[in-house]
Structure prediction request, 354 residues.
Amino acid sequence: MSKIKVAIIGCGTIANSSHIPSYLKNDEVEIKYFCDIIPEKAAACVEKYGCGTAVVDYHDFLNDPDLDAVSVCTHNDFHSIISIDFMKAGKNVLCEKPAARILSEALEMQKVAHETGKILNIGVCNRFNTYVMKIKELIDNGELGEVYHVYASFRKHRSIPGIGGDFTIKAKSGGGALIDWGVHFLDLIMYCCGDPKPLTASGESFCKLGKDIKNYTYKSMWAEDTADMNGTFDVDDSVVGVVRTSGPVISFNGAWAQNVGKDEMFIDFMGDKSGIRLNYCSNFTLWSVKNGMLTETVVEAKETNMYQNEINDFIRCIKTGDHNQQYIDNAVLTSKIMQAIYDSSEIKKEITIQ
Ligand SMILES: NC(=O)c1ccc[n+]([C@@H]2O[C@H](COP(=O)([O-])OP(=O)(O)OC[C@H]3O[C@@H](n4cnc5c(N)ncnc54)[C@H](O)[C@@H]3O)[C@@H](O)[C@H]2O)c1
Prediction:
């Protein structure tokens, strides 16, 4: 059987660290194009991986009848436009998280996915994390009883990415800590809890520590090569929120930067039978009661590579037409929550989610 032909659009960090190596390890795939608006980045991939053709403008291969699918690995400002163009051209799409900058873009992506019948998966990779999948299984099997509240803490002392660059310009990214990190936390909570319907949200997003770029002092800065000390910072470096759903209440405290000293990255699932603390991207502890005794179990598992799982299952979906847990219909729920938090912060009121 002939291989699935894919193109990589945006040859930056996530493309090189996860999408490309995972496609290369899948025997059913051939990478046909590497595309980046910076020609050297596309050319470097052709050279490094020894396959494909380097292209600067994706329109040059948009209608290639031999192409089956694309990975959209650009910044958030191009997610919807590129995904929609390729679905309309009859291609399947794996688009990086967040689905889009704002809810209306994500809804348009969903509409085109439904109209064209093409696969549109969003790279919320934690849905393929071994521990996250195990927690979902425990919840589905009733081990936690009723999960009534889930609390997420995703906060770092001072760790704004690429300050002044793409990450911190709202017009390009759609937001800061919430849309960049919060999307992973909210989405994995939604997954574990069976993708409940979001009902209302109230929140506040803060733009405090990063706004004075020239005087911002930091502990660490990732994506530092994209920083611009004369650039813009108009996104949230910190955010809090409460979301009511048809399942549990979700609350969270998140930040790229807070003056808190110690970083925290965990999620607490509170059930009336048992509770779990998931250490983000790591193991989890289960607290319960057995024969009248309090129990504590640290769950360790042989981890598989979530990015490889994501790519393998995307290919499976292309071949079978199946919708998996990363399909746009699920991702849109998280987009609705994030939009409601930003809107609530702006109007200082709780938002009813449609
Ligand atoms: N799933 C994850 O764990 C994870 C991790 C990191 C980043 N991401 C997401 O991946 C996306 C990219 O992040 P990154 O850190 O790799 O960024 P990056 O800046 O390293 O790479 C983006 C690349 O896209 C290119 N590009 C921009 N517009 C383009 C266009 N119109 N056509 C072709 N190429 C274009 C840029 O030149 C750049 O090389 C973001 O949406 C981010 O949220 C996801």
